[in-house]
Design brief:
Elements (H helix, E strand, L loop, with lengths): L5 E10 L2 E6 L12 E4 L7 E10 L4 H6 L7 H10 L4 E12 L2 E3 L12 E4 L3 H8 L5 H5 L8 H15 L4 H14 L4 H14 L8
Antiparallel strand pairs: 1-2, 1-7, 2-5, 3-4, 3-7, 4-5, 5-6
Helix pairs in contact: 5-6, 5-7
Length: 208
């Protein structure tokens, strides 16, 4: 059964390799580090899939003043969180796109546009369809050496998808075996990733 798409914000800026999403405080309860999201244009353009790899909350002048107050009133804090003018910003790494029901695992031909809505991929059917083909893992690994924390992103993503797919151990093990093949010459990423996965998903009984 399909879940209703949950909008988590709108595109602030974008490039072919990724995009930034601005959201309000009350939109931050569902998405998290490693979540699969998609920029969903209203017109006939590509739907772009990506993974959240950073969430940034900037300050402003009011925040700077409030942190100097010894015990700010709770209603003041809540009002600032509800009515803040600066958006919370999420950074997303592009890992695929869909056009006319055809999924492609690679960078999109063009980025999403400013103010395109971004939704959280939480429907098991959609997540299963996208993650059945593990080709997108190569795009995550290509971000090594950039600002993307690749090893921790892989751990968070695999754990998240494992749960959305109903604790699908077969899929998780296939993803791990694919990573071992891709990272056989890069132990600096492989070993920490496997160690973190063995702690995050102990039921897989990984031996590192």
């Amino acid at each position: 059964m399909n879940r209703q798409a949950l909008e988590i914000g709108r595109v602030l800026r974008a490039s072919t390799v990724g995009f930034s999403v601005g959201c309000r405080v009350n939109q931050l309860s569902a998405p998290g580090f490693g979540s699969l999201v998609k920029a969903q244009p209203a017109e006939a353009r590509e739907t772009i899939y990506g993974l959240i790899y950073n969430i940034n909350i900037d300050d402003d002048q009011l925040i700077r003043r409030l942190v100097m107050v010894e015990s700010p009133r709770q209603e003041v804090i809540e009002d600032q969180r509800r009515n803040r003018l600066l958006p919370i910003e999420m950074s997303v790494l592009s890992i695929g796109y869909q056009l006319y029901d055809q999924l492609t695992y690679g960078l999109p031909p063009r980025p999403p546009l400013n103010l395109d809505p971004v939704t959280l991929c939480q429907d098991p059917e959609e997540v299963t369809r996208f993650t059945d083909n593990l080709s997108y893992l190569r795009l995550i690994l290509r971000a090594a050496g950039s600002s993307v924390p690749v090893d921790q992103l892989l751990v968070a993503h695999i754990n998240d998808v494992y749960l959305i797919r109903g604790k699908d151990a077969a899929w998780a093990l296939s993803a791990i075996h694919e990573l071992i093949e891709l990272l056989r010459s890069n132990y600096d990423i492989l070993i920490p990733t496997l160690e973190a996965l063995s702690e995050a998903v102990p039921e897989l009984e990984l031996s590192v």
